[in-house]
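Section 5: illustrative case.
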């Protein structure tokens, strides 16, 4: 026999998991509405589904949290949205080789579980947000071949100095200043 306390605990746990999935689904749906998808590769991104783990190009962990978004080289245009910062369990954001424009949202700096941020070969502009320096789990940061301007923030460079960021490429942008090449990072600016 199930005790009333156990039943309440189970219902509460399911409700929390459902809310987390809804937050993640809402964030991804908000992004989809700001993307142009000429090949309709995001057709499975149905905002009426509670769980985005059934969507193509999305990987989740055993707790149904979004851990990976793989949208490389699929012909997307549009912008990155601040709601991406709500993907609090995301480890890989792979959105390279598209035609994304606009800025890198500062909210991405809230995703402290991020291991890889690959936004290279797009048309992103503006500065690199200092908030990316908060991504203490980040191992790969590739922002090359965009239209980024300004200097690389000291907060981001600190990730290279601390040794956590092992691949870092900002080449082929419109950045100013100099960054010294290290044995573990791909650095450069144009």
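Designed sequence:
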């Amino acid at each position: 026999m199930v005790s009333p306390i156990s039943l309440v605990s189970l219902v509460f746990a399911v409700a929390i998991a459902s809310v987390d999935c809804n937050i993640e689904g809402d964030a991804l749906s908000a992004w989809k509405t700001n993307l142009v998808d000429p090949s309709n590769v995001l057709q499975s991104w149905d905002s009426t589904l509670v769980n985005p783990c059934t969507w193509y190009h999305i990987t989740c962990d055993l707790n149904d949290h979004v851990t990976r978004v793989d949208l490389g080289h699929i012909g997307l245009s549009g912008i990155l949205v601040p709601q991406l910062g709500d993907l609090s369990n995301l480890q890989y954001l792979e959105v390279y080789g598209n035609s994304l424009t606009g800025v890198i949202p500062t909210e991405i700096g809230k995703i402290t579980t991020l291991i890889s941020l690959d936004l290279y070969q797009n048309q992103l502009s503006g500065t690199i947000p200092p908030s990316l320096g908060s991504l203490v789990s980040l191992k790969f940061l590739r922002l090359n071949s965009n239209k980024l301007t300004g200097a690389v923030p000291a907060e981001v460079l600190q990730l290279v100095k601390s040794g956590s960021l092992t691949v870092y490429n900002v080449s082929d942008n419109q950045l100013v200043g100099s960054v010294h090449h290290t044995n573990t990072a791909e650095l450069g600016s144009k």
